[in-house]
Amino acid sequence: MTQQAGTTADFPGPEDVFGPSHADGGPELVQLLTPEGERVEHPEFSFDLDDEAIKGFYRDMVLTRRIDVEATALQRHGELGIWAQLLGQEAAQIGSGRALAPQDFVFPTYREHGVAWTRDLDPLRLLGLFRGVDQGGWDPNANNFGLYTIVIGAQTLHAVGYAMGMQRDGVVGTGDAERDAAVVAYFGDGASSQGDVNESFIFAASYNAPVVFFCQNNQWAISEPFERQSRVPLYQRALGFGFHGVRVDGNDVLACYAVTKAALQRAHEGSGPTLVEAYTYRMGAHTTTDDPTRYRLSSDVEAWKLKDPIARVKAYLTRNGLVDDSFFEEIEEEAEQLGHHLREGCKALPDPSPLSVFDHVYVDQTPELAAQKEAYAAYLDSFEGAH
After folding, report:
1. Is residue 312 flagged as an active site residue?
2. Residue 191 lies in domain
3. Is the pLDDT of residue 225 over 50?
């Protein structure tokens, strides 16, 4: 009997989606580097880079944390209006970010500072947004890194639409590793409860879009704990939409790299979307306006500090004699230089011209907008004349 397209027979069963190790509720968490810094094997995923790459990951995470620390301090000193911290989530962002091919495109939230670092975006551009002197107006096409999205979950719809465009442009499933492209959409566990995210899952599944949904489950949707949002692990939600899902140790940079690389490979070859749940913890506050001591236990924070993503890579490098003290000293010196760059650069960021708000609305300025700009310029001049 022939099944009609769109019937349930078109959708995979649990073993097709997750493989045997996930379908029966087996090992849920993909881990390749333990909190003690020991390499471990996994039956489905492996880390295919060398120790030099791991050294690079360590540097990336240390510098990303320094960006976070400096930006938090700048906010406390009144130089930024607000800052969204990522403390504890460095491995999830660096591992996934380094798995991207140059032609892949990123749709971030407002916390992907580490991913921005892997896409060679000057962190001063991030500070400009939080300082209020621009609207995060970097060129997305220069780094294949979209603008920060403040509306919770909205970027997942943008990501799926862009991924569908890639399909129609013929850059998916060609077999050319330098041509095949995909999209990664970043969001948090709180955003997974938004309608936009679930609608994006539907469209991605329906059109087999080349998109990786990368959810950083840091346990808290601002002050709402994860267990109040979902009765099942987030990665299992993918099954209900008909595509792959996997949970990875979000504090293990090697596992985050390996899992994201595999998900991107599936997307590149035309095998559709994947939901990656990076199980991690937000050791800092939601933003600098938040007081996490009001809703979570300090003992939980202390327990997660033992799983610190940077400390476990440092443990691996030292216990295997791969580096000496000078390696860490050089990175700390680089972090100091980065801190100085951010402190001085942030204070020197120029205030925008009020008229610049009209300059980037459309590619070609419309007559109506030009008239508005001219009228507003005259309005501003009237104040200058008054003095």
Report:
1. no
2. 11-348
3. yes
